[in-house]
Amino acid sequence: MQKMRVIWEHFIFSLFGGLALAILVQAQDQSGFISIDCGLPKNSSYIEQTTGLSYISDATFIDTGVSKSLLPELKATYQQQLWYLRSFPQGIRNCYRINIASRTKYLIRASFLYGNYDGQNELPEFDLHLGANLWDSVKITNASLSISSEIIHVPPLDHVRICLVNTDSGTPFISAIELRTLKDNTYITKSGSLSRFLRLDIGSISNQTYRYKDDVYDRYWMPNAYRKDWKYISTSLTPDSLQQNYYQPPAAVMSTAATPVDPTAAFDFFWEPDDATSQYYVYMHFTELEVLAANETRAFNFSLNGKYWYGPLIPEYKSVTTVFSPSVLSGGQYQFSLHMTENSTLPPIINAIEIYTVKDFLQSETDQGDVDAITKIKAMYEVTRNWQGDPCAPVAYLWDGLNCSYDGYDAPRITYLDLSSSGLTGEIPPLISKLIMLQYLDLSNNSLAGPVPDFISHLQSLTVLKLENNNLTGSIPIELIERSKAGSLSLSTGKNPGLCASTSCKNKKSNIVTPVVTSVGGLVILLIISAAIFWILKKRNPHAVTAFKESDNPNGTSLESKKRQYTYSNLLKITNNFERIIGKGGFGTVYHGYIDDTQVAIKMLSPSSVQGYQQFQAEVKLLMRVHHRNLTSLIGYCNEETNMGLIYEYMENGNLEEHLSGEASEAKLLSWEDRLRIAIDAAQGLEYLHNGCKPPIVHRDVKSTNILLNENFQAKLADFGLSKIFPADGGTHVSTIVAGTPGYLDPEYYISNRLTEKSDVYSFGVLLLEIITGQPVITRTQENTHISQWVSFMLAKGDIKNIVDSRLHGDVDNNSVWKAVEIAMACVSQNSAKRPTMSVVVTELKESLASELARKNLGEGETKDSVDLASLSFTTEFGPTAR
Ligand SMILES: *[C@@H]1O[C@H](CO)[C@@H](O)[C@H](O)[C@H]1NC(C)=O
Ligand SMILES: *[C@@H]1O[C@H](CO)[C@@H](O)[C@H](O)[C@H]1NC(C)=O
Ligand SMILES: *[C@@H]1O[C@H](CO)[C@@H](O)[C@H](O)[C@H]1NC(C)=O
Ligand SMILES: *[C@@H]1O[C@H](CO)[C@@H](O)[C@H](O)[C@H]1NC(C)=O
Ligand SMILES: *[C@@H]1O[C@H](CO)[C@@H](O)[C@H](O)[C@H]1NC(C)=O
Ligand SMILES: *[C@@H]1O[C@H](CO)[C@@H](O)[C@H](O)[C@H]1NC(C)=O
Ligand SMILES: *[C@@H]1O[C@H](CO)[C@@H](O)[C@H](O)[C@H]1NC(C)=O
Ligand SMILES: *[C@@H]1O[C@H](CO)[C@@H](O)[C@H](O)[C@H]1NC(C)=O
Ligand SMILES: *[C@@H]1O[C@H](CO)[C@@H](O)[C@H](O)[C@H]1NC(C)=O
User: Fold this and answer.
1) Which residue, judged by its Cα, is nearest atom 2 of ligand 3?
2) Would strands 300-304 and 643-649 be described as parallel, antiparallel, or unpaired?
3) Which of 215, 218, 681, 701 is catalytic?
4) Residue limits of the Protein kinase domain (predicted)?
5) CATH code linked to domain 228-361
6) How is domain 670-712+726-866 classified at the architecture level of CATH?
7) Quick one: how far is CA 754 from the chain centroid?
8) Predicted local distance difference test score (pLDDT) of residue 51
């Protein structure tokens, strides 16, 4: 057996060399492309000659670093976006912030060409971060070669941060950043993002790297090194003559293929993982390039590590077939073999291959609201600190003067803000009130003037407030004084000559804050992977080829993570022998427990429940891959024969139903604002399931008992036992056996069995009505009236005030209530097409909350003129009509 080994240096490419021809650029769609030339002078842009891509300066995306340019002789060999670079001699972490469409799949590429721009001739190494997570480690190995890191990623927020991090091995720099939107139905992972390990044009007979415009997605396709034991097949293929699939590998790449010279040989290859725990996805692209005679066939099977993996595949003439791993490949060994089937007369061919490493970006970025607020505060004041990148994450780069709450996979929240002795002038900015989780606020020893604003007293978690040594005037809000007297707030206000602690002082407005640019450190991002693929060509031994037909999906196990598996004896310990019961559900009992010092809730499945077992599996499967701050997070599970349990984070304030049903005491009554925040949380959780998950997930059991509240009354959606994941290739609905809870169940789904996201929207509408009215979903007193019928009836009477939970005593903003009722009624439309999507619901609920907050900010006790509700148009369909 003959073995050969070729190492392909996959990041090394020299694009088009000096042949940069001024080809007339044909207008092609660049929408969804963001092409940034780092270091290019501010305000400039150009159209790159070989690709026709239009690049812009990076100056609007970053405010640190210095622009540098390469020597003319290097420029001649590279495309223009690499001619300039931005270097970061100062600061540990320097970040770009680029606005994008959130939850869209992007190919993100960072490119680096050192070119000895600094005359030091020392090859730097540094880290590249994407948001709060390490993306790659960049290692420049040759000054005159460019390298790049690529990742396929769905950013959760409306922006991405790309950071260059100094690791004490030279000055970080970056040459270009490119973002391209991809189709949602390509490169699907169970979890994590895909970092390019390699992407090869295997049959390449030129030395050319292909990208845009050959590739509509602008992926880089590198030529594989020439091999004597391969035969190269090629044909002329134009984009029009090639029948494409979703992946759209370029015609130029697909027009060549490699096949063994020995017609009986198998086509074998393997790669060596970066480390044993790496996980991979592989995509192989095939097109038949020869016209086969009637007595010829080319059919081959795939095996992985000696086991049947896929096949037989018969590549079609001038038509792309992509074979990929539907689930992650792991285990440290990746030996692929393409071998012809018995009836085949021709050996296997392969045109192109892509291999990606899975990057699990577990650290969430800081809550978007907190980021927006602190970023604006940063822009307003001269904060002589290194405020760069995400404020809270990763924790190693926490901004000076800040501290945050870190709660599992939840987005960190800012809890501590120290802006003392920072030379602040003007009034205390209202932006502070957006940092709603603040516990500690220190503004002492500045030159702040004007009153102590009321909004500070809306920061419910605040326990320390330091205002001393400023020039504040007027009176301190009563609520703050009361909280201080009650001992729940440590308040220091000394050395403010014009400030008095009684309400008799007159408020004096002073100057508006003068914005001052903050000085920040630099950002750095970069990643390099050194990968190698080994091609082996071996004689086919017909007896050695065994076809295993175990599974189509060799690694598609449902319980992927072994780490989070607990034994039954662990559970006994965690729950102290199941000492404390905190709930009982249809399928088992919920117990309280501790893992280290963290409280947890453990749902034990009763052994007799067959249906429960399926739901147990469904829930584990789902929660292992789905993480969002408004979904309860699964800490672990136990699956030991009949002992099955799920371990969740503990939700201190129980479920929403308990708070609405009047079991909660008056003191704990949820205010209108609380209710809206809970509704928004629940809506965001659902919105994430529908739009943030690919494929989308329908919860199927949205109801108030499945909305859990943590110690801060943050709501999380729970119980995913009935959830349905839509098939990746499927249409927009699935047919299922109807399941759900009476009262919340979508009538259309009940009749048609067609399940869509809109069924959840209906249930959410019912939930929202419950939140607004505090009434049960189905009234038992009258003849089983549904809550939506009751609300329709009240609306028809024009009696809107009595729709709202009477326990709130009218302490609500009428506009806000109106908006909420309108959303709820739209959600419970009989016709699912008339129901809004959850994204719309989230937006509208936020407007409703804004309206309520505006009322509160006008001052407690004062109510805005009530709006004449009857004059507002009510366009949505009312609830079910009585039969
Ligand atoms: C960049 O453009 C903006 C607006 O077009 C202009 O105000 C600014 O002066 C320009 N800056 C430079 C350096 O040309
Ligand atoms: C760097 O790359 C250039 C261009 O391919 C090559 O000529 C040179 O030998 C390389 N230098 C080193 C040190 O490998
Ligand atoms: C590709 O590059 C190699 C060495 O760099 C050279 O020997 C070969 O002729 C080149 N092939 C083509 C088609 O340019
Ligand atoms: C197919 O038929 C042609 C003649 O029509 C013959 O020359 C060739 O050997 C045949 N190939 C095979 C694999 O049988
Ligand atoms: C190829 O796979 C097919 C389908 O599983 C199987 O029937 C056939 O025996 C396999 N052939 C070889 C040569 O492995
Ligand atoms: C292979 O050929 C044999 C005999 O010609 C035939 O019976 C069998 O169905 C063929 N198998 C496939 C997979 O085409
Ligand atoms: C942030 O808070 C945590 C928990 O209170 C504490 O352990 C940590 O030292 C704080 N970090 C900073 C930088 O203040
Ligand atoms: C107050 O701030 C100034 C700088 O703004 C600083 O020099 C001084 O030491 C600070 N005083 C106290 C008591 O922190
Ligand atoms: C405090 O504010 C008053 C006006 O409100 C101003 O006259 C005075 O100079 C300020 N003092 C300081 C120390 O800034």
Assistant:
1) 207
2) unpaired
3) 701
4) 576-849
5) 2.60.120
6) Orthogonal Bundle (1.10)
7) 28
8) 94
